C-alpha cells in the first residue's frame, strides 16, 4: 500500500514560525520515502526517513499518555527531577509496547519516539500535557474536554493501551496511573504514592 506517516518532535506553531525542526516520514516503501523526503524538507524543516512505520506510529500515540502524566507533575508543582523521571520511565513503557507490536527499538530512541516524547512532555503548547495539569488542579475530564477546541489524543489512547496491557500482561505503571486518574477518579497525589511505593526492581 502507498501509505506514509509524518511524525516527530513538532509543535505546529513553531513550524509555522520557521523555527528549525526535524521530523520523520515513515513507510515500508523506499520509493515513497525517496519521493516524499525532498518534498517536505525545507531550510528550517529537516526530514528523516524510517521504514519502521509501526515504531513511528506507536511513538506518536503512546507519548501522549506520558505527556498527561508530565502535566500532572506540573500541576502538582513538582520539579525537573520528577519530569525527567517520568520521561525516562515513560520511554521504557513506550519501548515495551513497541516491541510487543514488532517495532524496531531504535526507532523509539529517535525523533519520532524520544524526541516527540520530550517535546510533548515539556512544551507549554502541548494539549496532552495541559490535560494532565488541569487534572492535577482538580478539574474533571469531562469539563476539560468540553473546554478544549482541539482533541487531546492521549485521553482515548490511555484507555486503549490500558486494555491492551491488561489483556497481554504488560506492566505499564505510568499508563495505568493515568488511566486510573482519568477513568477511575484516583487522586493524582495518591497515584504518586502508588508509583513511588512499587516493589524494588532493577532498572533493566
How would you describe this structure to a colleague?
The protein is mainly alpha-helical. It has two domains: 5-50, no CATH class; 53-196, Orthogonal Bundle (N-(1-d-carboxylethyl)-l-norvaline Dehydrogenase, domain 2). It is 61% helix and 7% strand. It has ten helices and three strands. The chain has helices at residues 12-16, 30-40, 53-75, 80-100, 111-122, 127-136, 141-147, 154-167, 173-184, 188-196; strands spanning 5-7, 21-26, 45-50. It has a three-stranded mixed β-sheet, sandwiched between helices. Helix 3 (53-75) packs across helix 8. It is globular, with a radius of gyration of 17 Å. It starts with a strand and ends in an 8-residue tail after the last helix. 41% of the residues are buried.
Structure annotation, total helices: 10
Sheet with the most strands? 3 strands, mixed
Helical content stands at: 55-70%
The 3D shape can be described as: globular
CATH topology of the largest domain: N-(1-d-carboxylethyl)-l-norvaline Dehydrogenase, domain 2
Give the distance, in angstroms, between the N- and C-terminal Cα atoms: 37 Å
Report the mean per-residue pLDDT as an integer.
97
Radius of gyration: 17 Å
Poorly predicted parts: none
Classified in CATH, the superfamily of the largest domain is N-(1-d-carboxylethyl)-l-norvaline Dehydrogenase, domain 2
